[in-house]
Design a protein that fits this description.
about 30% helix, about 300 residues, 13 strands
């Protein structure tokens, strides 16, 4: 039986997640629950129903079509979803097909490695021209190590550059299963204090830091990515902790520097569509002056660093 991956999005012509022009494939499922997550539809490894209430005309076509009884009309005749019951969604898409307003969508589908490679090959010319390739993201790609390794190996057989985005929270054997086929790791560092990391993401960071050291010490190419939120992980003390952790690897050729990723609100509307509450209060965005200051702190130690502004 051919290996399959559970995917919730494929983004072509990506310029931010690895060198050159890339195809970014989003693997479903993640062990973290970051309060600011921009892809909440990718957290769980099952189909997820998304509902745009502003597009709904309360026609009840989805109520009739859904075999699971997830959709209903309330006493006022308004479309309603019991989000707890929506966990029974099988991803059959019958409600989506019935909705003429485009108010409903299902994210998460299984694709074979062959199907994914067909999509990847469509842009081979762009990879060759720009030095680009394929990046696997998520969610968390290490939640599906077998499928990820199979897809990466297929890319390598065809000479396609590979990268993965990872939070690093996985058993070491899963990491190494994938590592042999990866040209570049884009490795997240969210907070160096383990207790605070657990408060922000739901898991401590010891395993993450151990996996990062394993990659660096075994000469796998690694670029650090630091998602930054004001008054959450942007203090000089936190930045100093990251710098001191990375300084022993400063001269390593496989250490490819640090990317600073400023907070953005691009995923906020998805929470309402999923029946979830967004957990970040206020606006923790950093100004250009904030980012310049943080970049300056890191440059004092001669570590390569760049701000990635989407």
């Amino acid at each position: 039986m051919e290996q399959k991956a559970t995917i919730f999005n494929i983004q072509k012509y990506n310029l931010y997640d690895g060198p050159g022009v890339r195809t970014l494939i989003f693997f479903q499922g993640c062990p973290l629950r970051c309060k600011w997550c921009a892809n909440p539809e990718g957290l769980e490894r099952r189909p997820r129903l998304m509902f745009k209430s502003a597009s709904c005309v309360n026609c009840a076509a989805c109520v009739v079509a859904c075999p699971q009884g997830i959709h209903k009309l309330d006493a006022q005749g308004q479309h309603d979803i019991d989000w707890q019951w929506s966990n029974t969604c099988t991803g059959c898409c019958k409600c989506v097909e019935a909705c003429m307003q485009g108010a409903l969508s299902i994210v998460g589908e299984q694709k074979t490695i062959a199907e994914l490679m067909d999509i990847i090959r469509e842009d081979q010319a762009f990879y060759d021209m720009s030095g680009g390739g394929v990046t696997l993201g998520g969610g968390e790609v290490l939640m599906q190590p077998g499928a990820a390794a199979a897809l990466l190996a297929a890319c390598k057989r065809e000479g396609i550059n590979t990268a993965i985005e990872t939070c690093g929270f996985a058993k070491r054997e899963k990491l190494m299963q994938v590592a042999q086929y990866v040209d570049l790791f884009l490795f997240d560092l969210k907070h160096l204090d383990s207790k605070r990391h657990a408060e922000l993401t739901g898991v401590p960071n010891e395993r993450i830091l151990e996996n990062l050291e394993t990659l660096l010490q075994n000469l796998y190419p690694v670029k650090i990515r630091m998602p930054l939120l004001k008054d959450i992980n942007d203090s000089k003390e936190e930045i100093e902790a990251v710098v001191q952790f990375l300084r022993p690897y400063k001269a390593f050729e496989n250490f490819k520097g640090i990317d600073l990723l400023p907070y953005h609100k691009l995923g906020v509307n998805k929470y309402q569509q999923l029946g979830k509450n967004y957990q970040i209060e206020g606006d923790p965005s950093l100004t250009d002056a904030d980012l310049d200051r943080i970049e300056g702190w890191i440059r004092q130690y001669d570590l390569p660093v760049a701000v990635i502004r989407h």
